[in-house]
Amino acid sequence: MLNTVYQLKTPRQFDIVFQNLELDTGHVLIRPTYLSICNADQRYYQGIRPEAVLRQKLPMALIHEGVGRVVYDPTGAFPAGTDVVMIPNLPREEDPFAAENYLPTSRFRGSGTDGFLQEYISSDPDRLLALPQGLNPAVAAMTEFVSVACHAIRRFRQFSHGRRETIGVWGDGNLGYVTALLLRLMMPECRVTVFGVNRMKLAYFTFADACCLVNEVPEGTEVDHAFECVGGPAASRAINQMIDLIRPEGTMSILGVSEEPAPLNTRMILEKGLRLFGSSRSGRGDFREVIRLYEEHPELAEYLENLISAVIPVRGLPDLIGAFDADIHKMMGKTILRWDV
């Protein structure tokens, strides 16, 4: 069958291409329904990735956050009509020591291979998980984004020592919001303090124990462990403030994406005996954990609704371009596409 694919050909220019989609007995056919724009998508759309990267990866269909509805499943894993979250990571092998999202042989939708901006998606059944009944589909579209923070927290539990009285989260944007929220649900015994630069954004963090502007940190403030959710050119300042405020032998989780190297105060990293680890993307186990949290903590979806900046119906290229342009100018939150093509 012919499948309509919406590819970014060059920055700010989408093209429609038609590709043959073969139906076989081992793959599930899904109709995407709600998709979420990520900052990574915007870096491609605006052309702010390095030129060599753009030449290598474009043309490509964007979007790696999304949900859909099962149209046809010859494997018997899902009844037709089941709402599912689509896992963008496509592993080709297993490794006893490295997770699927860190294997160089894995492919990732919307980064090197076509993402979810398609009329239909053909997927292995293990790259799909059924969604809870009644979950807001606009929230469900953000599940991949939430799973990234979940992945980092699961790894933090593995790497950090047992004194976890106070955890600091640096970043008052979307990633900081989700990370702090999941820390509250997954580690309720910990005190969560959020450090940011925008007082209006910090007002959204009503679930945190405390919020603090980075230039107004009270004297004597300390944290046992810290999460960096800033990225970009400000990542270095955030990480160095984390180094200043963290107690000896604390663990620092780095999540923010930066295009340029970040200079760090390595002297104090050594002096305090700190542990730094990076986290990127997520795997099937992280998606399953997020779905469990949806089911056991209905308030999670309610808090995530605060991140929905807009839900924009997309019926063709003009709507798609308009949605990406609108997403550039939002102050906070996620732009959700209601995929009606």
Secondary-structure blueprint:
Layout: E1 2-10, E2 13-20, E3 28-36, H1 39-45, H2 51-57, E4 60-61, E5 65-72, E6 83-86, E7 89-90, E8 107-109, E9 112-113, E10 121-123, E11 128-130, H3 137-140, H4 143-159, E12 166-170, H5 174-186, E13 191-196, H6 199-202, E14 210-213, E15 225-228, H7 235-245, E16 251-254, H8 266-272, E17 275-278, H9 284-296, H10 298-304, E18 308-314, H11 317-328, E19 334-339
Helix pairs in contact: 4-5, 4-9, 9-10
User: Could you report the average pLDDT, rounded to the nearest whole number?
Assistant: 97
Q: What's the domain count?
A: 2
> What's the SSE pattern?
EEEHHEEEEEEEEHHEHEHEEHEHEHHEHE
Q: Which radius of gyration do the C-alpha atoms yield?
A: 20 Å
Number of DSSP strands? 19
N- and C-termini, Cα separation: 16 Å
**Approximate shape:** globular
- Seen as an oligomer or otherwise, the chain set is single chain
CATH architecture of the largest domain: Alpha-Beta Complex
Percent strand equals: 25-35%
CATH superfamily of the largest domain: Medium-chain alcohol dehydrogenases, catalytic domain
Task: Specify the CATH class of the largest domain.
Answer: Alpha Beta
Biggest pleated sheet: 7 strands, mixed
Summarize the amount of helix as a percent range: 25-40%
Q: What is the CATH third-level topology name of the largest domain?
A: Quinone Oxidoreductase, Chain A, domain 1
Q: How many DSSP helices? A: 11
Spans where pLDDT lies below 50 across 5 or more residues? none
Structural class based on helices, strands and sheet pairing: alpha/beta
